[in-house]
Predict the structure of Class II glutamine amidotransferase.
Amino acid sequence: MCQLLGMNANTPTDVMFSFTGLATRADEHKDGFGIGFFEDKGVRLFVDHHSARQSPVAELVKTYPIRSKQVIAHIRKATQGVVALENTHPFQRELWGRYWVFAHNGDLKNFEPRLHGAFKPVGCTDSERAFCWLMQELAKSHASVPDVAELTHTLAELMPQLHRHGTFNMLLSNGQALWAHGSTKLHWLVRQHPFRRAALRDENLQVDFASVTTPQDRVAVIATEPLTSDEDWQAFAPGELRVFVDGAPR
Amino acid sequence: MCQLLGMNANTPTDVMFSFTGLATRADEHKDGFGIGFFEDKGVRLFVDHHSARQSPVAELVKTYPIRSKQVIAHIRKATQGVVALENTHPFQRELWGRYWVFAHNGDLKNFEPRLHGAFKPVGCTDSERAFCWLMQELAKSHASVPDVAELTHTLAELMPQLHRHGTFNMLLSNGQALWAHGSTKLHWLVRQHPFRRAALRDENLQVDFASVTTPQDRVAVIATEPLTSDEDWQAFAPGELRVFVDGAPR
């Protein structure tokens, strides 16, 4: 199984602390990693088919404070598809003049959708097929980019059609909001005023968020497994879809 | 004006030497840079709206030997569109299950094509509009990915329709080949056995290619201005389209 990390904030925020927590788990998840940062409508997508433990690209992400309001990261342990750059999450496509970034943790069985639209997989994973199908169905449902509430409504109709094929924990963003779907394992929390100290579970690293934030800041973090040992992480119910805007669930 | 750099090779090759030569020119081209590497069908695209002189991302590219057979890089001096990540070249889209990477040097006047297909610009540059229009017209011309000769034929019909709107030096790749169109300023050369020493024009840096290659290696380099002072660069004629495969023009 892979591991997911998502971040949604009301002010551009770096994810060096959380990404360090994720990368620590890369020993078992050695088949690549990727991270996408939205900056307004633009995206920086770093992918590498080397482990996040060894990759110079991961080192850059851990030390260069890229500030973003929407981040999706993934470390991969291949279940379907060979270890290759084109199979490395997150995946990116453009729809309605907006970039969309998607990462998946899970395994879809017998999922061979009819992809007759403008979105075709480049690699050979079930995950990229699921993303292309989602983009195709969104494109059929709306003529141009709808508001977040409408998109959430459409996604809530589409998720069960993927979920019935197997494990489907996923993160999706178009830069306006971050959607998270829980299937077997996904957790979230919101950090907001009053901020306090937090310690990574798997690494001897602490951050005092009060010293690096303002009282107005708010950030939601979504991760496969809780990243810290001393914060209140909440589990997604199976089949639960949540949308995060400005650092909070809606 | 921006500056372009393209590389097409018959064996995965790094571009640290040539990219260093390009980045040296970033003082005047401070409005962002980007570089896309194909690795088989996968793409790594690094973009930054900071100058290639200062960006930690550019530093990574200069020091991490990413080996690729197709590379497209761009340093930007904004003529149309604000300085923002979504306006930073190269641009990337997916068509027929292949990624396409595009960068443009020039300025298209009154180019407002009808974009009725599946490719919409995210930013607000003439360049991204031109790329979306190219993708749309390619999608109309072929049902699935044709061979390089057929694609070249279609592109040769499309280029003049862009060129008549203004300066259109461009690089385009889908991982199989690299297409280059010259309008006002574009140069190319092929490095092959017997390899020799070359010195960057703008930086005190030399490479003896004989020491880092095998006799079978062949690499074509395309750049706005010749990058080295002691090699035979050839200029593109206005309106000339060339396709490079396995390190040589076809």
Q: What stands out?
A: The mean pLDDT of chain A is 93. The helical segments of chain A are 16-23, 56-63, 126-141, 148-163.
